Amino acid sequence: MGKERAFFGQPRGLVGLFFAEAWERFSYYGMRALLLYYMTDRLSDGGLGLRPESAKPLIAVYGSAIYLAAILGGWISDRLLGDRRTTLVGGFLIMCGHICLAVPAGAGALFASMVFIAVGTGLLKPAISSSVGDLYPADDPRRDSGFSIYYMGISVGAVAAPLVVGTVGQDYDYHAGFGIAAAGMAAGLLVYLRSRRRLNPVGNRPKNPLRPAEIPRARLVAAVAGIAVLAVLAVLTVSTGILDADGAVNLISVLAIALPIGYFTVMLRSSRTTRAERARVRAYIPMFVAAVAFWCIQEQGATVIAQYAGESTDLDAFGFAIPASWFQSVGSLVLIVLTPLFAMLWLRLDRSPRSPSTAHKFAAGLAIAGLSYLLMVVPAAHPGQANPLWLAGSLAVVTVGEMCLSPIGLSATTRLAPAAFATQTMGLWLSSNAAGQGIGAQLVKFYDARSAAGYFGALGAGAVVLALLLFALAPLIRRQATKRGSTMDRNQAAVSR
Ligand code: PHE
Known about the structure:
Order of helices and strands: HHHHHHHHHHHHHHH
Bound molecules: phenylalanine
Low-confidence stretches: 485-497
CATH class: Mainly Alpha
Number of domains: 1
CATH superfamily: MFS general substrate transporter like domains
Number of helices: 15
Radius of gyration: 22 Å
Number of strands: 0
Oligomer: single chain
Strand content: under 5%
Largest sheet: none
Structural class: mainly alpha
Distance between the termini: 22 Å
CATH architecture: Up-down Bundle
CATH topology: Growth Hormone, Chain: A
Mean pLDDT: 86
């Protein structure tokens, strides 16, 4: 991939990946915006008539499972299909998932759609994110800002989706709304197909193809994994009835933490990981932990912060009734507005001789997330309804943290990943979100309007302390990440700041 300049000074392939991922996220967040209402609405009004107590944990399990599936998707891409085919198959399955919901076929169609979308997203998301990394030569300083632009595509989809899919679904017909999500994914597939010639051809084949001798073992692992998935599905299916909501939530929390730990262990012990790569994986672990803590706070925007918006915020403060759900869009809006600024900032900082390391950016992101919660202590400590600007301000602050951590995390993942595990490491990165949500699912139980100030204070302070720790570790991490190995490693290590 040459250094041709086209899209904000970035490789031209980025345009296609930007819009393909924007459409995929549009379909995903649009479906998410409708799901709870569809599941809990009365049968006579076109819903499924489930109780909210059953629907909420199911949606949470589903959200976490999607990002956990990315670990499996990464394996399939690295070993069987390559990024290009994995993205296409994934996108096709996601579209099928939305089509299941677009036909009025009840709870069975919902479960089928969940399986399609979880598997499809698990395939597509790590593969497409990994192709962004492949647009850049190893030493290209544009990588971080390129990922910031790509991440803006995610937010463009996320902002538009509830407005379009949500409005059509709620005001007109649920299935029409889901149909628009399906059309959105179809558009994403078309954009991807059109742009695939601009992508790095390494995505055309698996990066570490399965050798014939490994096939029997892979079959065994696939069978065991298949049985495990079926068992989990069975437990979840009965969980709406027999197992209480808490049981289902506890199950995800455990899985979401255990799977990434297991995967790190496999990567560190694999004979295909070179010594220098092993040092880089070790350097990645503290940053992964910081990311888990970050997502634990950021993803509470949809739970605790949503609840605070509904219960403790003066929604009439500006003379009209602000819908509580509007707060869900604040983050993505702020992100879109600030991205050009951050893309420039990273480009400038990374070219300067005293460029901040990835660990510094992560520490800053986590500290800022902590501050967003500490800020909430002020209104929460005062009795009465809070001015909505507090909440909007806190959401804007956490989004600045997101810009320091999330695009940089994607970028660092593509730089630090062992060659044999390229897309799988991306899957692992996505699972940091699943783990954060899994831990969050346990923490949010401690939140209510009376404990709010203490809750925000404790979590905010905890995040800041963790961030300071990471800051202190940053020089050590940088040294580990740049450890020299074989000649092949050296090229990569030179840029693994
Ligand atoms: N907004 C991000 C996205 O949809 C959330 C996320 C971050 C998901 C990291 C997975 C991993 O891409």
